[in-house]
Amino acid sequence: MYSNNPILRIAGILAIVVTTVVGLMSAAYCQEWNSGEFNDIEVLVKPTLDSLIAKEDTDHDKRITIDDPHIPDTDRGNRRFWITTLGGKKYEVDETYYLANLLEDLKLAEDEGKDTITLNGADIFRTPVQRIAESIKNLYWAGLTRRIDEAGLEKTFTDEKIKTVDGFNYVYVPHGDTLGYDYFSEVAHTRPNFNMRVVMLPAKVTPKYIEGLNGRPGILSLKLCKEPDGKITAAPFVVPGGRFNELYGWDSYFITLGLLEDGKTALAKSMVDNFIYEIDHYGKILNANRTYYLTRSQPPFFTSMALAVYDDLPKNEETKAWLEKVLEAAIKQYTNYWMGPSHLTKTGLSRYYDDGIGPPPEVEPHRYRYLYAEYAKKYSMSEEHFKDEYLSGKLKVPSLDMFFKNDRAMRESGNDASYRLQYDCVDLVTADLNSLLYKEETNIADIIEDDFGGEVRLGGRTERSSTWYDKAEKRKKLMTKYLWNEKAGMFFDYNFVTGRQTGYVAATTFYPLWAKLATKRQAEELVKHALPLLDTPGGIVGSTEKSRGPITKDRPQTQWDYPFGWSPQQILTWVGLKNYGYTKLARELAYKWLYTITVNAYNYNGTIAEKYDVVDRSSQVFAEYGNVGTKFSYITRQGFGWTNASYVFGLTFLTKKLISDLDRLIPPEWVFGK
Q1: Burial, 565: exposed, middle or buried (Cβ in 10 Å; 0-12, 13-18, 19+)?
Q2: CATH code for 505-674?
Q3: Is 42 a catalytic residue?
Q4: What is the pLDDT, as a whole number, of residue 78?
Q5: What would the pLDDT profile of 293-321 be if each residue is shown by its tens digit?
């Protein structure tokens, strides 16, 4: 409504004209930036960053996400932010995803100490697939790379899991590694600020000895090399991320697939070298290189990991010598550990097992509260009193001892926690472990056959490919006998104590496809019967809801069961289906998983999480200890190791059209009509 006062009317008209002109000018600049030319603009870093956070981070979590309550501009309903250049021009950025991209670029510049930054629209408005893939390649892998040396320990000692009862930071070196012991002792001397103690492990590391380290946990040394000039260098490796700040067993296989796709072959090879060191000095690839993991391994992917790296290396005498070291280490671990007395069962198949004593100390205290409360009630004690009496050894509770024995074995499986394994893991020969051991056997046989002419002399004995092919064939027959269920058309775990299959429907039923041990008909049955039960909007789910069972106060949600999905389950299923000619199905499943990652990164400031609710396609997961990779400020610099890998590896399954569809965030059901 215009005022009746002529002066005010003129002033109002002039204000409208000025506002319109300024708006058109601003819009013109914005249009110029979005027109495809994407000219560079120079802005002040801190004022722009502060203004962006103040306006768009309305829930004050130092991120810009779809969860920020939005106060719309008066003249336009969607989110938008105006950047003012050093020359006084204004450029517009709107929508949550693009604002988050702007936030990331400004924060990186601030961390580099820059007062100004040259922004380019091509970067801010980059499509999500390209930006995620480039961030993984150029930022996340570097953010996850570690070394166990003087420089690396500075970061390691900031980890919350390094805390000890006496306040010292411990580095443990395996018996006989004098190079490592001398090096770390010198570091302790020259860096008193590390508050560091170096301990050489005994020649025989017993479960009782490891239990005695519970108050003094520490990092375990990995491969060091002495250069010709005398300098000591450490072999680098990639960690999963977040609270998982060490070299993990099976994570490393999937991480390696991503590193190789991104051309980081030397780093992938270095991870294999660290595993050779672990097998030679600790007797196995460890769950991770910390003292409380000395009693267990993780699912065996060693030869598959090494062969993936070998395929990328030049074929010369040096590479062949390296492959021979791989082969020797693989046979040592297979024979002494996986086929040793703790793991080999009367069925001829192997199980997961952990020689450790009592509750695993790395697990968060709240994890077992419901269990302690249940036992405290039976013994008419308070929860704290019962816990103190039990952990001190004053109170003997055999059933609780057995629970922790199963719990520890479950953690060797990597599926911690899952009701598939929680209560009887030590009594199970599983489809996943024995598929992996079949793959180790065939890989060893193939290496001897293809690279050493059918036989090779290792450690004073002759290894023949025919022997290893026979081992694989024997395991295949035993798996069909004990684990294959003809009626259900699936592989199930087998309880060798009760003499029955568990019937628990889980993603591990697809492992035989990945290992190429299933027959063509078994593959058809799995696609017909198992896939419809485990295929969800966001990818392959860990288990069916029916198998998982009800969730109650005393029976908490487990993160490896329904409704959650993880990168290993996706990758192994894609490759398994492709092995048997189901390429189209593999492609659809890869798209579903990549869409889940992409849409969450798009809506949540670049989030790349360790796991997802694949039923709801959400990264907002709070099972057990939450979801690593979802909590950060301003910018994720790491993502999560195997999720990063699944993204770049998964893209190789998609056609150009599907990548274009993914870039436009078209949901799978619209792409595939399901």
Answers
A1: buried
A2: 1.50.10.10
A3: no
A4: 61
A5: 999 999 999 999 999 999 999 999 999 99
